[in-house]
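so my prof wants the structure for this chain in the tokens format not the other one, which i didnt know existed until like an hour ago. anyway here's the sequence
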Amino acid sequence: MKAGLLTIALCMSMPSMAAGHLCDSVESVARTVMQQRQEGASMGKMMESTTKIQDPMTAAMAREIVETAYEKPQFRTDQHKKRAIDGHANEWASVCWRRNK
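here's what i got, hopefully its the right format
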């Protein structure tokens, strides 16, 4: 989880990076966050990991990714967990593409 957020921090602070690579990173982080959420990870620990991100805009986006994951329920079946994970990742990939047109 921490590695994913650090990756997005590095990617988002590189303005010359192609939107595709950036959005792939955002999608990956959103996927990882929701996987952790579905496994029962503490929201507090997830939010704490975002404090290590130095760029304020990147940190805010990472917090938003965590917050939106925890607005959704934690599921019991693997099928529902997978659907939640894929949905969260796709939702954030879409947000990234819209913001980086």
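also thought this was worth mentioning. Residues 76 and 83 are 12 Å apart (CA to CA).
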